[in-house]
Amino acid sequence: MADSPSLNPFELRKENIDKFIEASTNHIIRREEDMIGFFKEAADTGKLIYDVYEIEGPHSTDMGLTIMKPGKVGREYHMTKGHFHESGSADEYYFCLSGKGLILLQSAEGELRHMPLDEGGGVYVPPGWAHRTVNVGNDDFILLAIFPKDAGHDYGTIKEKGFGAMVVEVDGKYAIVDNPN
Ligand SMILES: [Fe+2]
User: Fold this and answer.
1) How far is the CA of 10 from the centre of ligand 1 (A)?
2) How far, in Å, CA of 56 to CA of 7, rounded?
3) Which of 10, 48, 99, 118 is surrounded by the fewest CB atoms within 10 Å?
4) pLDDT reported for residue 8
5) What domains are defined for the chain?
6) How confident is the model at residue 72 (pLDDT cuts 50, 70, 90)?
7) pLDDT at 1
């Protein structure tokens, strides 16, 4: 682990996210076609929705930096796939470095919450709550997430059942509406 970049203390600000990207050990790219089954109207357009750069920590936590492009697919604002953690004890912290968005949270029992997540703000995601972030602004939405190494990501449940709410444009503004499915 001596060469792990995360062994060195570092400061993260929106102005120096390139340092985080340089130190990252994993890069996930989600284009519109990767989101078929998540957005109602996703198609094979090649459009970039978001990138995630991950740094594997040397001890108990990993970090992810999500950079989400502004825009919509059909009526839905750009969003992450969303997931439950496979580990029943895994929680997560999100901090917004730049942009304007929301986080949707849903418990295994189907209880739904949403919170604004914009620059200077953070959110705690307790164990057992699925989470999805949504860019409702006009600029990149940039988030830092910190989560336990053993969290694991279950995307299948969300793909199959969806969230109980969708974030769509209504009269030029975002609205959180029931998912008819
Ligand atoms: Fe997570």
Assistant:
1) 22
2) 10
3) 10
4) 76
5) 5-178 (2.60.120.10)
6) very high
7) 40
| pTM of structure | 0.94
Query: Which spans in 17-111 are helix H?
Result: 17-23
Q: Determine how many CB atoms are found less than 10 A away from the CB of residue 170.
A: 10
Residue 90 CA to ligand 1 center (angstroms) comes to 8
pLDDT of 55 over the 50 cut: yes
Residue 102 CA to ligand 1 center (angstroms) comes to: 15
pLDDT at position 57 is 87
Whether the CB-CB separation of 168 and 114 falls below 8 Å is answered with no
CB–CB of 80/132 below 8 Å? Answer: yes
Distance in angstroms (rounded) separating the CA atoms of residues 117 and 119: 7
What pairing do the DSSP bridges indicate for beta strands 48-56 and 26-31? antiparallel
Q: Which residue has the higher pLDDT, 92 or 161?
A: 92
Distance CA 107, CA 109 (A): 5
